[in-house]
Amino acid sequence: MNAGVLDLLGMLRERLETHEPFLVISGYRSPTTNHRMYLRHDGVASNSYHIHGMAIDLRCEGRSLPHLRAAASSLRGGGVGYYPRSDFVHVDCGPVRYW
Questions:
Q1: Contacts of 59 by beta carbon, 8 Å cutoff, 6+ apart
Q2: d(CA 1, CA 51)
């Protein structure tokens, strides 16, 4: 995993003021796995930051998804995607953007 996304997780934990674990839904993906997901699921980028080890999809015990999204967005440390139907927030250390 890219050190930038790990630093982002540390800052996110501090912002959330929690010691509860992050529940990782998806971290690094091989190019093959990412391509399969791209073909089968809406919202998967063909050149995802996941294949560069720069993205994590997660949730946090004891914190609501909207709270997690707001905390991640406030850091302005990269991309933040909100997927309430899939019950996770995407964070990456790429350019700052939101969806």
A1: 22, 23, 25, 65, 68, 87, 88, 89
A2: 10
- Give me the residues paired with residue 58 across strands: 24, 89
> Are 91 and 39 contacting, i.e. CB atoms less than 8 angstroms apart?
no
* Mean pLDDT confidence for 78-90: 97
C-alpha of 32 from chain center? 20
For the chain, what is the radius of gyration of the CA atoms? 13
Neighbours of 14 (CB within 10 A): 11
CA distances in angstroms from 50 to 6, 17, 24, 67, listed in the order given: 13, 26, 12, 23
pLDDT at 41: 87
Please say if the pLDDT value at position 1 is more than 90.
Answer: yes
Indicate the pTM of the whole model: 0.94
CB 99 within 8 A of CB 32: no
Residue 7 tokens, joined: 């630093």
